[in-house]
Structures are given as structure tokens and as C-alpha cells.
């Protein structure tokens, strides 16, 4: 079987974790890269994962790109900017595993991806993949015009038969205004063959009072398949059919003994789900993979952790 290919658009940053003015740990992360790495870990040779972003030409940028390549991520579409550098964030976790962030990314290379002189080459490359994945963060870091330019290009790619996958991943501080956020998300949902969203994010952005309201709205906005992530309660999958009826399935997750760090919970769920969805496996198997992968990740500290791939694969096929 020919391997599927997916392009993941976003920003990966330098990560500092620990308490201020102590020996902090240096790493890297970002929602899109977290998903890219876990997807490649789980899918292996069945899915080619291409990262689309912009980085600097400084030693730190080059070291980051080498880290991604070590995970077998294709970086041919990571554009280099001679006058920009990668973004930086600091993360701290409380006793329950919840995290707080501070960011230094307002002038990062990734913010200027669409303006890069080689971006047209990226668009040509995107026409060759099976699917394109991006998040609300991928859009929010761009200037407003660049955001809508990217969405317009994605609309043309969708017309060519390329699947569009979107996670709203709402971070209010990144958006220039709520109006811009609503407009961009409306366009993204309308393009989405698959929307992978977190209920808490959607409720904050749109005021949804329950999952049913959230699901109905997303389908009305144009999303074809919808997965609403519910944390410890698992996830809900829904699909809009040709007769406009909507089928709904709820999938529970496994109990977790102790939550250490929720940093990449949603990102890793997306990766697990996509590893199966891209290869056209049953939805139950997609949801199982997402839930199992996220359950492993939140029991360790950090965005990118070691996972037990064999156990996940054995469980979903049992």
C-alpha cells in the first residue's frame, strides 16, 4: 500500500521548563510539531509527515530542524529567513499537571511564512499531499491578511481533492481581535473535512453550553467530520451525511492513574486519531488510538515523550 502523505503547518519553538531562576530544562515544542512527531512515531512508514514553517539560519534554528529530522519529519518545506529567529516559550506546571505559558514569539520567523519569497514553492508542494493539517495557532500567529491569504490557498487545494484537517486550539492572547478570530475560524471550519476540537476551547470561543450544541454548530459552519475532545471523558465523533443527517458516537478513554503534564494532550490525541484516519481505519480504532496515545503522554513530563507504540497498536486491534 502506498504511504499517505500529510503536510502540517505551524510553528515550533524553543521550550524552557522549570521554575524561574533555577536550572531550567531546554527543549522544543509547539502544537503542530507535537502532533507531527507523535503521528510519525505511531504511523511509521504508513504516513509521510511534512512540516511547513519558517525558521532562522542561526545555530539554534538549524539545531531545531535537525531534531525534527531525527524524528523522520520531512523539512523540505521549512523555509529559512536570514533576519528572523525561532520563537521561545516558558512553561510551568502546577501540582495537578495543568500548565501556564509565557511566550516570546511576536517576531518569530514562522509569523512571516506566507510573506516568504519561497512560499509559492511550498504551495506547489502542498498540491502533492493527501491531507493538510493546521490549527488555530497556525493561523493566529500570522498577520490578518496573511491568515486569510493562507485560507484562500487552502480552499483552492481543497478543490483539488486534498483533505483539510483543522483544530481550533483557541488561545485568546494570540488573536488580534475576537472578530478576526471568528472570521478565520468560520473559514477554517468551512474547509474542514475533519475538525478535531476541544470542547473547552469551543465553549470559550463560541459560548457553547454543551457538546450537542458545539457539534451542531460545527457542522452548520461546514465541517464534514467532527471530533470533540472531552478530556477524561474521551471524545465524541460525528459525521454529516449526504441527506444532512448527523450520526454521533461517543468513545470513552482509559483511566489514568496520575496526570503529570497535560501540555500535549490534545496534540497527541490528534496524532493518534490521524494515524488511523489517514489510512482509512474504522472510526472506533481512530478514537482508541487518540485516547490511548494521549493517556500515555499526560503521564509524563514534557511535550515530546517516549511512548509505548506496541501497546497502542495491540490494543486497538484486539
UniProtKB/TrEMBL annotation:
Annotated CDD domains: KdgK (cd01166)
Gene Ontology molecular function: kinase activity
Keywords (A to Z) from UniProt: Kinase, Transferase
Record InterPro entries: Carboh/pur_kinase_PfkB_CS, PfkB_Carbo_kinase, PfkB_dom, Ribokinase-like
Domain Carbohydrate kinase PfkB as annotated: residue spans: 4-305
Keyword Cell membrane applies: no
Pfam families: PfkB
Spans traversing the lipid bilayer: none
Alphabetical list of PROSITE patterns matching this protein: PFKB_KINASES_2
Keyword Transferase: yes
Gene3D superfamilies per the UniProt record, alphabetical: 3.40.1190.20
Stated family: Belongs to the carbohydrate kinase PfkB family.
Name of the protein described by the UniProt record: Sugar kinase
Amino acid at each position: 500500500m502506498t504511504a499517505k502523505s500529510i503536510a502540517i503547518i505551524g510553528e515550533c519553538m524553543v521550550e524552557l521548563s522549570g521554575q524561574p531562576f533555577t536550572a531550567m530544562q531546554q527543549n522544543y515544542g509547539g502544537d503542530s510539531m507535537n502532533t507531527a512527531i507523535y503521528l510519525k512515531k505511531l504511523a511509521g512508514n504508513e504516513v509521510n509527515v511534512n512540516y511547513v514553517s519558517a525558521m532562522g539560519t542561526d545555530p539554534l534554528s538549524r539545531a531545531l530542524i535537525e531534531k525534527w529530522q531525527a524524528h523522520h519529519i520531512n523539512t523540505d518545506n521549512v523555509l529559512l529567513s536570514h533576519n528572523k529567529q525561532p520563537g521561545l516559550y516558558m512553561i510551568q506546571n502546577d501540582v495537578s499537571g495543568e500548565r501556564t505559558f509565557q511566550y516570546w514569539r511576536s517576531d518569530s520567523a514562522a509569523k512571516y511564512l506566507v510573506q516568504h519569497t519561497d512560499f509559492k514553492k511550498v504551495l506547489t508542494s502542498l498540491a502533492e499531499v493527501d491531507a493538510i493539517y493546521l490549527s488555530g495557532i497556525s493561523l493566529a500567529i500570522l498577520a490578518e491578511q496573511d491568515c486569510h491569504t493562507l485560507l484562500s490557498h487552502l480552499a483552492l487545494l481543497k478543490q483539488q481533492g486534498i483533505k483539510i484537517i483543522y483544530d481550533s486550539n483557541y488561545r485568546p492572547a494570540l488573536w488580534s481581535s475576537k472578530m478576526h478570530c471568528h472570521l478565520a475560524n468560520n473559514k477554517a471550519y468551512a474547509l474542514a473535512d475533519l475538525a478535531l476540537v476541544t470542547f473547552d476551547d469551543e465553549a470559550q470561543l463560541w459560548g457553547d453550553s454543551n457538546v450537542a450544541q458545539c457539534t451542531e454548530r460545527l457542522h452548520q459552519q461546514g465541517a464534514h467530520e467532527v471530533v470533540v475532545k472531552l478530556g477524561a471523558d474521551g471524545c465524541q465523533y460525528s459525521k454529516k451525511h449526504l441527506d444532512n443527517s448527523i450520526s454521533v458516537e461517543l468513545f470513552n478513554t482509559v483511566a489514568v492513574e496520575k496526570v503529570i503534564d497535560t501540555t500535549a494532550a490534545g496534540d497527541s490525541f490528534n496524532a493518534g486519531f490521524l494515524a488511523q484516519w489517514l489510512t482509512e481505519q474504522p472510526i472506533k480504532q481512530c478514537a482508541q488510538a487518540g485516547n490511548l496515545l494521549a493517556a500515555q503522554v499526560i503521564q509524563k513530563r514534557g511535550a515530546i515523550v517516549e511512548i509505548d507504540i506496541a501497546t497502542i497498536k495491540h490494543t486497538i486491534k484486539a
